[in-house]
Write a structure and sequence with these properties.
Elements lengths: L8 E3 L19 H7 L2 E6 L2 E6 L6 H10 L2 E6 L2 H11 L3 H14 L18 H16 L4 E7 L2 E8 L2 E9 L3 H11 L11 E6 L6 E11 L2 E10 L14 H11 L4 E6 L6 H12 L6 E5 L10 E4 L8 H8 L6 E4 L5 H12 L3 E6 L4 H10 L4 H7 E13 L4 E3 L4 H6 L14 E3 L10 E12 L2 H8 L4 H10 L5 H10 L5 H8 L2
Parallel strand pairs: 1-4, 3-4, 11-15, 11-16, 12-13, 12-14, 14-15
Antiparallel strand pairs: 2-3, 5-6, 5-10, 6-7, 8-9, 9-10, 16-19, 17-18
Helix pairs in contact: 4-5, 5-6, 9-10, 10-12, 11-15, 12-14, 14-15, 16-17
């Protein structure tokens, strides 16, 4: 271990940043060291190396930088995601690295693409270990939510879901597939000998990963086992409600709802629409020292301090209904139900909301009004729904225009026409934009996503309508009369403000 000399290693607050970095400075340190530590050279001047590194880095590692570079060192802090994006631009392209690794894995065993022989390939082979590690690393760098490893005839396709869309990033020879799957199963503590039944597991991500856990699912197909890895972000990645894309009016109404002492709040939308982020952002607001917050989830994705979180485990007798019954004997103030899937769960959740508890839950319906009628159809009496329900949020995710290459545009008439908007008219203060495509967004013009919302709060008129069996259309009309916007209207407002594009609004809301 080396002692850091303060004269040679110091933090600087006014220094060149990543955007102004000199790419040639990356050559001062080994690429593997940069990937491992995230310590990133950004300038080299007169024998002095300037680096950026994530907060919390052990300063002893800076001494390793000095030894590698034979230079004096100063540093600034940068976020992990910013550093990884910089690596993606200036280190060896991960896709090229995957090509090299897959070629190496095959050539190590004298195999050609399409060769059927694979028995001597094992999950412990160095090339296979590196290949799987690089796939996961590449997915994290690209901020993918899911990795699909798909066996096909003659090849294995690797696809990433980024900002809600799947794209092919790599193919590897089919003879590597079984060893790759075995390696992933070992990491996820799954049975490598069982290839004919679906399996589920988890991989604990490394300390320097922006993903907290990786959920693994395997399913047998005609060409072999397909693997899907879902990269779950850590609890520190859960944003505040103000950063979830709520309009100012919807944000105030939703915050009012979750700060009520009791009642039922529903969040609805398809898988992958951001319901969990919305619920946990809400829990962060109501989770206080004097409040007992309990959750039942399947699975537990985000572990938050101060919450009592229960994982559904049917084999052990822990189901949504049984956990809810137990919760009611645990003196709860706030109860989160990961998903209302059946009439029993719906009934208990509603009764809990009626007996002095705030209940937050998700439900799978297309819109907010549909969630209200769905609860009725699940066997909950109309008068109980009417008395307990506070608010319903329906949401989807739309891609955001890339901030780096955003430019003002005139909306395309065909897109406006498809949305029922008049061409040539623009609201006052509107700034429609689109991304030209840059390195930051991979040429797509989009970077990241934001939510669009439909929020129905239950007032006296709506409560009466629910009590008398109003259908979804009547509930929707009443909500809009009271000022609620539907999903498309909320998305259109975001397009006028340049947050997203009208084409993206059409893609997400054209149902």
């Amino acid at each position: 271990m080396y002692t850091i000399t303060l004269m040679k290693v110091k933090k600087q607050t006014h220094m060149v940043g990543l955007e102004e970095a000199d790419p040639t400075a990356m050559e001062r340190l080994p690429a593997e060291f940069i990937r491992e530590t995230l310590i990133t050279p950004i300038a080299f001047q007169d024998g002095h190396l300037h680096v950026a590194m994530p907060p919390g880095t052990n300063l002893e590692e800076i001494d390793r930088v000095r030894l590698h570079s034979q230079a004096t060192v100063s540093y600034v802090h940068a976020s992990e995601n910013a550093l990884r994006r910089h690596h993606r631009a200036y280190l060896v392209d991960p896709s090229e690295a995957l090509d090299a690794l897959s070629d190496a894995a095959a050539s190590d065993h004298g195999l050609e693409a399409g060769d059927e022989q694979e028995d001597d390939l094992t999950a412990e082979d160095t090339a296979i270990v590196k290949l799987v590690s690089r796939i996961i690393e590449d997915a994290i760098v690209r901020e993918a939510s899911d990795v699909h490893i798909e066996p096909q005839e003659g090849r294995t396709a690797i696809r990433f879901r980024v900002d809600g869309l799947l794209s092919l990033v790599q193919t590897v020879p089919s003879n590597l597939h079984r060893a790759m799957v075995a390696r992933i199963k070992i990491l996820a503590s799954l049975d490598i000998a069982q290839r004919r039944s679906p399996q589920d597991g988890r991989i604990q991500a490394g300390q320097r990963s922006s993903a907290s856990d990786i959920r693994v699912s395997t399913v047998p197909t005609v060409y072999g086992e397909k693997v899907v890895m879902r990269l779950l972000k850590g609890s520190d990645a859960i944003p505040t409600l103000a950063k979830l894309g709520f309009s100012s009016a919807n944000l105030k109404r939703f915050e009012d709802a979750i700060h009520r002492p009791y009642g039922l709040v529903l969040v609805t939308g398809p898988t992958g629409s951001g319901k969990s982020f919305t619920l946990f952002s809400a829990l962060q607001q109501v989770n206080r020292e004097e409040t007992n917050v309990v959750t039942v989830e399947d699975p537990v994705e985000y572990k938050l301090p101060g919450l009592n979180q229960v994982q559904v485990n049917p084999r052990a007798g822990v189901t949504f209904p049984s956990a809810l019954r137990a919760f009611l004997r645990q003196d709860p103030d706030v109860i989160l139900v990961g998903e209302i899937r059946d009439s029993e769960t719906a009934q208990i959740a509603t009764e809990a909301a009626l007996t002095g508890h705030l209940v937050l839950a998700t439900l799978h319906t297309n819109d907010a009004a549909g969630a209200i009628t769905r609860i009725n159809q699940m066997g909950v009496e109309r008068f109980n729904v009417s008395a307990s329900l506070i608010a319903v949020v329906a949401q989807r995710l739309v891609r955001r225009v890339c901030e780096r290459c955003s430019q003002p545009v005139s909306p395309k008439p065909e897109a406006l026409d498809a949305l029922g908007l008049a061409a040539g008219t623009m609201p006052e203060g509107a700034t429609p934009s689109e991304g030209a495509g840059c390195e930051h967004c991979g040429g797509s013009g989009y970077r990241g996503r934001t939510a669009i919302h439909e929020l129905i709060t239950v007032d006296a008129a709506l409560r009466d309508a629910i009590l008398h069996g109003a259908n979804g259309e009547a509930i929707q009309d009443l909500a809009q009369t009271a000022g609620a916007l539907n999903l498309r209207q909320d998305a259109v407002e975001k397009a006028w403000r340049g947050v997203t594009t009208f084409e993206e609004v059409l893609r997400v809301t054209n149902a």
